[in-house]
User: Fold Ferredoxin--NADP reductase from Pontibacter mangrovi.
Amino acid sequence: MSSPYLNLKVVDITHETADAATIHFEHPDKQNITYKPGQFLTLILPIDGKEVRRSYSLCSTPAEAPRLSVTVKRVAGGLVSNYMLDTLQVGQEVRVMEPLGNFCLTCAPTNQRQVLLFGAGSGITPLMSILKAVLREEPGSKVTLLYGNRNEHSVIFKEQLQQLQASNPERLHVEYIYSQPAYDCEHRGRMNQSMILRILERLRLARIDNAVYYMCGPAGMMEEVRHALDVLHVPADRIYRESFVSSSAQDKQEGPQHGTVLSADDGSEVSTQTVKVIYEGAEYSFTVEPDQTILEAALEQNIDLPYSCQAGLCTACRGKCLSGKVYLDESDGLSEAEMEEGYTLNCVGHPLTPDVVIEIG
Ligand SMILES: Cc1cc2nc3c(=O)[nH]c(=O)nc-3n(C[C@H](O)[C@H](O)[C@H](O)COP(=O)(O)OP(=O)(O)OC[C@H]3O[C@@H](n4cnc5c(N)ncnc54)[C@H](O)[C@@H]3O)c2cc1C
Ligand code: FES
Assistant:
């Protein structure tokens, strides 16, 4: 089996806004790295004596090979985003996991479709890859982007988007939405259901059956898009969503909720449990506290289990539950068939019973 790890060299850094930069990588041998538009790269960085991993969507397209690019937006107090923006240098080598992710689009030159993209803030990154791929690979398709930002100065890729619009005036349309605009603008406020419906009606995109819909941004924005698409009766199999933050991370960010516990549908509750994990021929038993995921507890014990996005999205941490029950904060990464077969995701999994045994591999 080939290694999922690669060493890439930083070949350039583009400053996009005051708090976002694009890091361009190449393989030292200029080897092409295979990926699909919309997939992400997981960076493995040594910070403060520890190895930390974070995923970043590729904003480049495979046609830009051998270059792969990710855009990082600073998160206040965030370990890796601040390290990347303040410390990473051209020439430095970074260990990465090969591209992963299901939020992707496969282009075919004969396709004639409408590709509708909804993004906000750093959520533009995978959409940019998809947008560029469609413009290049599907001459008969059109792209519409609804793009939310705080103001005109926080728009990542503004110049690139303007250039792409100028060279594809009939095929690319962008609607900018600003929550706190510095100047007069057409769409003021956060992207919400009524605004989305209004824009799609005006662009005559509300009632079409040859469209695919991709959304990436904060949970609130994605809910609004989802509601709007429900009103338009868009079938679920045409809608793709990517989240950068898992619901458990969001809950932690919103602060502890005293007296509440995660509960499974059948009423069982998450409590302190010991789990057994079987990985590469070794068996590990460790305790998982109610506010920890199985992966977090393992890493705290220096048990080196596989993982990547830590958001229940990429399946790098997937294991099969041989006994016991596991509650998942997020199950988007697993298909229904995988769930029925007992697969679980350690990065978003909490043991519900004392007999949990998970086999990885
Ligand atoms: C599939 C995937 C693709 C991603 N693509 C990108 C990308 O293209 N560009 C990009 O900038 N980021 C992207 N992210 C987010 C990225 O992986 C990191 O989570 C982000 O950079 C924060 O890491 P940190 O170490 O700086 O913050 P941490 O030290 O991990 O967190 C600090 C605090 O910030 C909160 N937090 C973490 N992430 C966010 C966030 N995105 N927004 C607001 N609060 C947050 C945490 O809950 C915590 O409270 C992606 C994540 C996933 C799962
Ligand atoms: S690490 Fe990506 S799904 Fe768990």
Notes: The two ends are 12 Å apart (CA to CA). The first strand starts at residue 5 and ends at 17. The domain at 273-360 is CATH 3.10.20.30 (Ubiquitin-like (UB roll)).
